[in-house]
From TrEMBL:
CDD domains: ABC_FeS_Assembly. This is ABC transporter ATP-binding protein. Belongs to the ABC transporter superfamily. Ycf16 family. It comes from Geobacillus kaustophilus GBlys. GO terms for molecular function: ATP binding; ATP hydrolysis activity. The keyword ATP-binding applies.
Length: 259
């Protein structure tokens, strides 16, 4: 069973501290959701875990199954079983969706264990049908000309094809209509198993109506300040964050912009 352990994580961007001591453990079989006002460090956490060079880890540790994630290059983190579905997926001209996915799977599997072409095609066809994607999207350049909803659905296709140990979904619901949201949620729910753990970063309860988290965490001022079950997200939807600020004596969110 996979275990991602984050301990006392401090992260700075351009010399400004954004994360100020995050502690979190995600195990296979668990879905965690992080919510919080803008600028509190949610996306910073995702980027730091995956090794974005803009984010400097100044203190703390991140381990995956006991391995030091912070010592790994970005590609090594992906091969070890980490996955990030990005808020704003990049468009890559000249590389088809299918070619990208097959190269990514083979890189994850390692030399000598590459997936056969027929097995890859069967799996790709199956997952695209499950996500109600047009078969033509396999042959289009990666995310080029895709709508926002198509890009997000494509991120879930990558998730289902790569089968990571731990996935981080950074605002995978932003900009989605209700039908696309349901399909994205269906893909994540299909991945649920003891071998798969997931961290969902979201502003809205609506995604959590379709993906029921085991744990909900609230991030403010660069820390996780409150944790609970699905009912916590429902209360935040109904009442906002002011009650938590009052409870904790937080007057204002002044962390700054998060990337």
């Amino acid at each position: 069973m996979a275990v991602l352990t984050i301990q006392n994580l401090h992260v700075a961007v351009e010399g400004k501290e954004i994360l100020k001591g995050v502690d979190l453990e995600i195990k296979g079989g668990e879905i965690h959701a992080i919510m919080g006002p803008n600028g509190t460090g949610k996306s910073t956490l995702a980027s730091a875990i995956m090794g974005h060079p803009k984010y400097e880890v100044t203190e703390g540790s991140v381990t995956l199954d006991g391995q030091d994630v912070l010592e790994m290059e970005v590609d090594e983190r992906a091969r070890a079983g980490l996955f990030l579905a990005m808020q704003y997926p990049s468009e890559i001209s000249g590389v088809t969706n299918a070619d990208f996915l097959r190269a990514a799977i083979n890189a994850r599997l390692g030399e000598g264990n590459e997936i056969s072409l027929m097995k890859f095609i069967r799996k790709l066809d199956e997952k695209m049908a499950f996500l109600e994607m047009n078969p033509d999207m396999a042959h289009r350049y990666l995310n080029e000309g895709f709508s926002g909803g198509e890009k997000k659905r494509n991120e879930i296709l990558q998730l289902m094809m790569l089968e990571p140990k731990i996935a981080i979904l950074d605002e995978i619901d932003s900009g989605l209509d209700i039908d696309a949201l349901k399909i994205v949620a269906k893909g994540v729910n299909e991945m649920r198993s003891s071998e798969f753990g997931c961290l969902i970063i979201t502003h809205y309860q609506r995604l959590l109506n379709y993906i029921t988290p085991d744990y909900v965490h609230v991030m403010m001022q660069g820390r996780i300040v409150k944790s609970g079950g699905p009912e916590l997200a429902q209360r935040l939807e109904a009442e906002g964050y002011d009650w938590i600020k009052k409870e904790l004596g937080i007057e204002d969110e002044t962390v700054g912009q998060e990337a």
